[in-house]
């Protein structure tokens, strides 16, 4: 191994060790996730290279007014997101977060993602603040259908009552899921620490939660291969890594530190 590579490995060990120290100070910690959490499952992010908003104008395709005026147009985007979600599955990063919850280290998972992957991977306390694309509802008659793995053979975007159905997600121009966001807000203002994975930190109110954590005395650990709104401002520890590797490494350091044998070269 070259001297540079060794140096980089030592530096990363220091960062993971510090992240584990911070997160073990007073668990459980909140987990906040964004689209980057599901990129390694195969789903594209919204922003950045290959992002959904490079191909669809969010204000046009993702807005509640579009669904009301031209539901077929809205379903061009919704259909692509639904079939993408059903084609892929949770990754090891989702499973790490579920294991950390089982160990009492991770608390609520506040996710902006609508793919349902955290729940499928085993997380029990998941706050889906933008909803879940698998829940299909009819705004007219209230009929609901949960799509677990594949579209049924008789799948139609139209309800038997004749109206267009829609996923139970928050479209642009709509209010957030009240229950989920107030619980997220409450957790963020309780002094808990937060682990942020894979969000650019652009869309409110999710992007305000980390600032609320800091203002309430909590610390922030962030995993993202690129800088986000939080990386050079409020993240106490920034792990410049993709979700699966970052979470898997962090799990090892948390494991070692909570068993009294902190890894790393300290
Ligand atoms: N691992 C971790 N993070 C990653 C990975 C990866 N493999 N690949 C990309 N990322 C990061 C990017 O660096 C970026 O910071 O994931 C983030 C994705 O950012 P966005 O696409 O903006 O997604 P998100 O922050 O979740 O967007 C929030 O915006 O359009 C709305 O409703 C939509 O829920 C979405 C919200
Ligand atoms: Zn109906």
SSE blueprint:
Blueprint (H helix, E strand, L loop, with lengths): L2 H21 L5 E5 L2 H4 L18 H4 L2 H6 L1 H17 L4 H11 L3 E6 L5 H5 L4 E3 L2 E7 L6 E3 L19 E4 L8 H11 L5 E4 L11 H7 L4 E4 L13 E3 L3 H16 L8
Parallel strand pairs: 1-2, 1-7, 2-3, 7-8, 8-9
Antiparallel strand pairs: 4-5, 4-6
Helix pairs in contact: 1-10, 6-10, 8-9
Overview of this protein structure:
Helices cover 38% and strands 15% of the residues. With 266 residues, it is α/β, with parallel strands linked by helices. The chain folds into two domains: 1-43 and 90-130 and 176-266, TPP-binding domain (Rossmann fold, 3-Layer(aba) Sandwich), CATH 3.40.50; 44-87 and 134-169, SIR2/SIRT2 'Small Domain', CATH 3.30.1600. The chain has a six-stranded parallel β-sheet with strand order 3-2-1-7-8-9, sandwiched between helices. The protein has a three-stranded antiparallel β-sheet with strand order 5-4-6, covered by helices on one side. A hairpin with a 6-residue loop joins strand 4 (131-137) and strand 5. The two termini are 21 Å apart. It binds adenosine-5-diphosphoribose and zinc ion. Adenosine-5-diphosphoribose binds at residues 34-36, 39-40, 45-48, 51, 58, 112, 130, 198-200, 202-203, 224-226, 228, 242-243.
């Amino acid at each position: 191994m070259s001297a540079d590579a060794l140096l980089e490995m030592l530096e990363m060990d220091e960062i993971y060790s510090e992240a584990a120290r911070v997160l073990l100070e007073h668990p459980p910690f909140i987990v906040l996730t964004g689209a980057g959490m599901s990129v390694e499952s195969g789903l594209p992010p919204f922003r950045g290279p290959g992002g959904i908003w490079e191909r669809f104008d969010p204000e046009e395709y993702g807005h509640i007014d579009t669904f009301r005026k031209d539901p077929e147009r809205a379903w061009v985007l919704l259909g692509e997101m639904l079939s993408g979600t059903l084609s892929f599955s949770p990754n090891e990063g989702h499973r790490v977060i579920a294991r950390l919850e089982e160990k009492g280290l991770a608390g609520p998972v506040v996710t902006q993602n609508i793919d349902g992957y955290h729940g499928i991977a085993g997380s029990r306390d998941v706050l889906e603040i933008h909803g879940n694309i698998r829940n299909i509802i009819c705004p007219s008659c209230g009929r609901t259908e949960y799509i677990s793995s594949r579209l049924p053979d008789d799948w139609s975007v139209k309800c038997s009552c004749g109206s267009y159905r829609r996923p139970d997600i928050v479209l642009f121009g709509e209010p957030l899921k009240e229950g989920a966001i107030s619980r997220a807000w409450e957790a963020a203002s309780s002094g808990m620490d937060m682990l942020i994975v894979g969000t650019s930190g652009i869309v409110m109110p999710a992007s305000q939660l980390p600032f609320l954590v800091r203002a309430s005395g909590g610390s922030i650990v962030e995993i993202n291969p690129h800088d986000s709104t939080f990386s050079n401002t409020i993240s106490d520890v920034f792990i410049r890594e993709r979700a699966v590797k970052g979470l898997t490494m962090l799990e090892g350091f948390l494991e070692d530190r909570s068993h009294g044998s902190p890894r790393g070269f300290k």
